[in-house]
Amino acid sequence: MPAPRSTVRRSIAAVAALPLLALAATACGYGSAAKEDDAKANVSSGEKKLSTDTVKIGYFPNLTHATALVGIQEGTIQKELGGTKVESTTFNAGPTEIEALNAGSIDIGFIGPSPAINAYVKSQGKGLRIVAGSASGGVKLVVNPKKIKTLDDLKGKRIATPQIGNTQDVAFLNWISEKGWKVDPQSGKGDVSLVRSENKVTPDAYQSGSLDGAWVPEPTASKLVSLGAEVLLDEATLWPDNKFVITHIIVSQKFLKEHPDVVEAVVRGSVKTNKWINDNPEDAKASANKALEKLTGKPLPQEILDPAWESIEITDDPLASTLETQAGYAVKAGLLKDPDLKGIYDLGPLNTILKAEGQSEVADAGLGVK
To answer: Which of 157, 276, 329, 339 could form a disulfide bond with 212, CB atoms 3.0-4.6 angstroms apart?
Structure first.
């Protein structure tokens, strides 16, 4: 029985491109410092520090990163660190977060599968490890119901994904292939016109009529529904047990080697945060939205927040077999050379924590460190 997950609702920005795609980062510098003054993240005076004074954590201001949003907002992660202080930074795109991890500007990050695969392959297996899961699901195909009534109606239509080679783009290309249709993965031209559109501009493009639909993460999908679109397919239905990784936790191998106690504390904080989200879904939803308001300047409207939150599942399990499958989809689409992902996972600390909590251990699908 897999480790507990929590049905949390989600939002996710487009993440990073795969190795053969040279994509520009979309944020300046290495991201923006998260506002912690109102969060319950202050270090109590006199608490014992771990092996370093601070740990720098990166994440997106998106509901799919709810573990980070809630864990930092509620101080759950900080509590496990004692006198070692959390310094958090938010990012708008996976490539920028990976750049920050490689430069040592962050030590640990919440991120999607494609940038993790990309970074691991580019570093020849020396850059990062995945140490825990965070979120599953939250991706939908939403369409203009006046133009598209069935899945077969997508042929000849203009459908958006967030970014060439990103997780949703690869999933949609694979779905198209399984329909027997052909689309050039680079240009997006073919039986379906694949339009790469940033999540923040996709709703306006849809409203203007330049898009007929989109294969996108939450809350973009729910934003489109609020504009009259309808959900035609939930990607979760295409996966075994309706589960697939959308966000997991990575750490630089250098930091993991030098500060294993800090990594274990952060993972323990994430496990406890996920349990709290599971046990208190409405309070957790409110906490995540409060964090989003601090980070972005405004909360999500309830009519977008509620369905988005419902479609995301928070989980300690990184769902390793689905990462391998997603990499296979990218290879099949011609966007990635067959990667060697052995060693990308180090789930030892997570499984030690889960066992201590009386929970089942999780698997690395044969991709763990020896």
So the answer is: 157
User: How many other C-beta atoms can be found within 10 angstroms of the C-beta atom of residue 182?
Assistant: 11
Strand 230-234 relative to strand 139-143, pairing: antiparallel
Give the Cα separation of 209 and 157 in Å (integer).
11
End-to-end CA separation in angstroms for the chain: 24
What's the pLDDT at 150? Answer: 97
Task: For the chain, list residues with pLDDT below 50.
Answer: 1-29, 36-38, 45
CB 181 within 8 A of CB 193: no
d(CA 32, CA 51): 25
| Beta carbons within 10 angstroms of residue 62's beta carbon | 34
Give strand ranges (E) for 94-238: 108-111, 128-137, 139-143, 158-161, 193-196, 213-217, 230-234
Amino acid found at 225: V
Query: pLDDT digits over 9-22, tens only?
Result: 333 333 333 333 33
Structure tokens at 261: 């106690």
CA–CA separation, 292 and 273 (whole Å): 17
Cα-flanking dihedrals φ and ψ of residue 156, to 5°?
85, 0
pLDDT at 42: 56
Helix (H) / strand (E) element for 57: namely strand 54-59
What's the chain's length in residues? 370
Buried b / exposed e over 2-37, threshold 16 CB at 10 Å, is bbbbbbbbbbbbbbbbbbebebebbbeebbeebebe
Note the pLDDT of residue 40: 58
Would you give the DSSP letter of residue 145?
Answer: T
User: Which pLDDT score, from 0 to 100, does residue 1 have?
Assistant: 40
CB within 8 Å of 118: residues ≥ 6 apart: 16, 17, 18, 19, 94, 95, 98
pLDDT at 6: 40
Phi, psi of 190 (to 5 degrees): 160, -150
